[in-house]
Amino acid sequence: MLEDKNQPKTQLENLGEFGLIEHLTKNIEITQESTIKSIGDDAAVLDFGTKKAVVSTDLLVEGVHFDLAYMPLKHLGYKAVVANVSDICAMNATPTQITISIAVSNRFPLEAIEELYEGMKLAAKIYNVDIIGGDTTSSQKGLIISITAIGEANLDDIVYRNGAQQNDLLVVTGDVGAAYMGLQVLEREKQVFQVNPNNQPDLEPYSYLIERQLKPEARKDIKELLEKLEVKPTSMIDISDGLSSEIIHLCKQSNVGCNLFEEKIPADPQLINVCEEFNIDITTVALNGGEDYELLFTIKMEDFDKIKANPNFTVIGHMTEAKEGMHLITRANTKIALKARGWNALSE
Amino acid sequence: MLEDKNQPKTQLENLGEFGLIEHLTKNIEITQESTIKSIGDDAAVLDFGTKKAVVSTDLLVEGVHFDLAYMPLKHLGYKAVVANVSDICAMNATPTQITISIAVSNRFPLEAIEELYEGMKLAAKIYNVDIIGGDTTSSQKGLIISITAIGEANLDDIVYRNGAQQNDLLVVTGDVGAAYMGLQVLEREKQVFQVNPNNQPDLEPYSYLIERQLKPEARKDIKELLEKLEVKPTSMIDISDGLSSEIIHLCKQSNVGCNLFEEKIPADPQLINVCEEFNIDITTVALNGGEDYELLFTIKMEDFDKIKANPNFTVIGHMTEAKEGMHLITRANTKIALKARGWNALSE
After folding, report:
1. Which sites bind Mg(2+) 4 (chains A, B) (predicted)?
2. Fold held by A12-157
3. Which of A25-29, A56-60, B302-306 has the highest mean pLDDT?
């Protein structure tokens, strides 16, 4: 799916490390007022005035976090930036800058790395963050991407994972589980392709799921939306590992329990259809499938009226005393303990 | 040299990703006033008040940047932090926080990663920086380390690479080339060890060189020292790739040329001896050997009197018009163009 064998290929050795950095960073524009000095020195310089700086970082490894057989490099670059921007959004902060480090083996020609950077630059543009630095080096095997995102916020606006209180409502943005099933569809197509490379897959019935997997978006809009509705979450996290795992993070750090209602978990109609086709339980997918990059947060019960009419938000449960534990209340009204299966990179 | 086969080994799979992060970060103390929120949320939160934030990042790959056959993990961790702290020092800023991301293959037991972290924590303590976040994941092959360092400075104090002027003096701290020859000594010992594992090497005559390679230090002291001497450099960079390469960076970004005097380049007596033993030209080593983490900077000529008596500084050349180019003036008084051989990761 990825490779056009006729495209021009420039070997990275011919450029050298400095040449590659220069080549990749020459068109990077700076738009943030807080960026005083960007790429080209030992470090970037940022000015946050009276605002606070928020910093997050991620490391992505080929074969562990992504498979280039179905993940086009431009999409990978876009997604890598989105995942980091999402962490800043989950602090109720505004993303402002990113640094990008990549290590590449010699199997990648310059054009491949350019494509990766195209996706990164596109995401930086769309989310209005400056690319202010990074590192470019070689790897012995595969592609490695490390991104650090920086954001700004007023101290009073920042929302941590540890502020949830008993009786708070648990709210999720958008829908969950689609990115995981998008991956399942792509994995199946990869296997079909390996058996018959001439097979032309019809991916139309899976378009939403595949887009959620290949080109997810961070919910940068939520901060503004909540401000408009005059709601400040008591705790917040983004859904990168899976709903279940993120709920457990909020509960543990806030020292509360939680009842999550199966019937309330928002799912896209396409996800419902595809879970039937794959004969997979949709709730398992919603609980354990990661990479949706939606936001999960808690609000005070009295704020319910302010958000209930907004289609971006779904109340999926409420917080309890810590000793009551963390449970899924099924449609059949049975109580099942939540497990942090999540996306466990080290056991895979 | 590294492994004690009898030491306890805990498989990383048993801990899981979250367990490993929790285990590695549980004793990390926070001492910086500017650290509002550290590890444990989607992002860390920093407060720089009226100071500016300075950000730098590095990606280190096993087999490319380090060889665990002679680099103990604790030293590697220490050095990885030092390399990043050094970049902040090279901005004439004070390092305050770091994030640490690592990817490890299953061949590393928990104890190995703990050792790596021990070195990182030690460096964080010595350089007084807070470890505020990071990412821990698996790799398909080897160890990958990504560190982002953050520092603070008054805007007026920050020194860029692009401020050097014609007639400015070129100054280097400490001595150069030793880290590279330390690596050569270790490479030789590795080969001896492979032929005869029972051979006990006598590394005493190389102790300084090996220490410069295995446990380099960042020149965090220089900012304060220059302040005391009332000297503000016009441009500055740290020596990570090699003197020649760093001089070229300063010249290109400042749009000046340079005359570097071979006889002025500071070398440790041990380096002189070992270069003779290895039959390697010491100037080649000083120019192209990297990882010394000394600072290279330019000052106005009228500041010469302020620094000339200080043993930390050596004037090694002066800046010229750009059109005169960048040259080494040899002991025999011949002019040789400087080349950015440096440490070219992509051609190796």
Report:
1. 42, 56, 87
2. 60s Ribosomal Protein L30; Chain: A; (3.30.1330)
3. B302-306
